[in-house]
């Protein structure tokens, strides 16, 4: 671009003037600004007492859960798509022949290392049966590393804990292009 | 210009040791903000030489790019310039789409433009805020950070994460924009100018701040071009270059905005440029959110680039096959054996990715051109002759992000 291009805005330095050079008038101006903020609405949240509001729990990327089907069995079919899509390689699945007639495989063990996970949500996008989903639980803590490696039972218990507030995507009708509420 | 051999200087064992003393600034110092190290040669309080020492935050991001596929790598770009992750996401996927020769739908381009500009606002809020913080203006920093929180909220509504967004995908985005997102952006556009006014009132004519930054770290136009500076740092020195105007990408030609430039080239000019750019970015966001086109946000199933919508996966055979093939590692994207470079105007300057495709779905080479790396090289040139207390002012005005610098 040339220097005289009409798309260029040449920013001017603000003039200090006499008021600026004298310090005091501008100190008074600064103090009025801060005083106005002093009496305006408080913007901080006292965290453990009041939880922050999550705008859209359905797309929030928190702790994972493994969904159950209508009969309470694990929905996962051990297709390994989530483990393939995971950029952090934190999902470990051992698939075996399913004891139920309606599908061929099911996960004998399904572990997610929650410390290794980067919560990108790619497992959720890759799952072809809506079995793995991210919930809105964000304050995950533990005392040991072993405690933070979630196995199948623990992931299913996250489902039991959250399913009332966050319906499954296939049942809530919420898909990536359909738009969330 | 002929290439000259680099001088390797051992500042600690210099002959002039009697008059000159050496100060290690960083890697752990509150004003470096991240792990930067500077070896300063001081004569009294005057800096006569400075040597940046980089590599403290080297994480092998470019090597990881040779192992993660084009979608997975977006999680790594989040962690490069972590104060504006969305801009990095967009830069990466613009480069990938150029390599794949893929056109994304207009709605996707508009959403990407909006998040890019919001990222620019949040980046400038933090860099000017931190510059104020380093020179003693703490309140200014708090006002800026409160508005950054609003932008985090908007991003959380859009993609479910506040900080490491990983929002874009090849040929589209992760989730479509919702009415709630549009409403939040409108509210931000409405309430934000008041904060900028407050910020300007606190610092623009504050004599303490002006005295500390005006005339400090002057970068001439010739030097700015010679050191290949870009972004607000080059524009503060009078280089009239903005990739959004000069090499338009996304849908920037649709919008009415100005490129902010100054001739002074000192720290104060870089501060003023950033404040002016915040206002221009807000204008772009306001125009884009009102003209957000309807229609699909992602590429069609036939393009085989973006994971199909879940309803298509369950109901159509093409959707199901595309879904599986795109996720499987050996039959994902169809990538030509070509090279490409795509640069975007990131908040800090020109952020470009150079990609070499080798027909697999993992890049053969994923080189990043980070603005911070180039701007940190200018630092010794800017600080020479100034006092030790000016180091923080100059560092703050350059906005060096070590994670992006070392990659």
Which key phrases capture this entry?
A: 181 residues; alpha+beta; Alpha-Beta Plaits; three-stranded antiparallel beta sheet; two-stranded antiparallel sheet; 6 helices; 6 strands; B: 407 residues; 2 domains; 16 helices; 9 strands
Q: What's the N-to-C terminus distance of chain B?
A: 28 Å
What does the main sheet of chain A amount to?
A: 3 strands, antiparallel
Shape descriptor of chain B reads globular
Name of the CATH superfamily of the largest domain in chain B? Cytochrome-c3 Hydrogenase, chain B
Count of β-strands of chain A: 6
Helix content of chain A: 10-25%
**Low-confidence spans of chain B:** none
> What is the highest CATH level, the class of the largest domain in chain B?
Mainly Alpha
Mean pLDDT of chain B: 87
Number of helices, where a helix is a run of at least 4 consecutive DSSP H or I residues of chain B: 16
The most extensive interface, with participating residues per chain, is: A-B, 55 and 67 residues
Q: What is the rounded distance between the termini of chain A?
A: 45 Å
Largest sheet of chain B: 3 strands, antiparallel
Assess the beta-strand content of chain B as a share of residues: 5-15%
Under CATH at level 1, the class of the domain at 64-162 in chain A stands as: Alpha Beta
Task: Give a summary of the structure in a few sentences.
The complex is a heterodimer of chains A (181) and B (407). Chain A is an alpha+beta fold. Chain A has helices at residues 17-21, 24-38, 81-85, 122-126, 152-162, 169-172; strands at 8-10, 64-66, 91-97, 105-113, 132-134, 149-150.
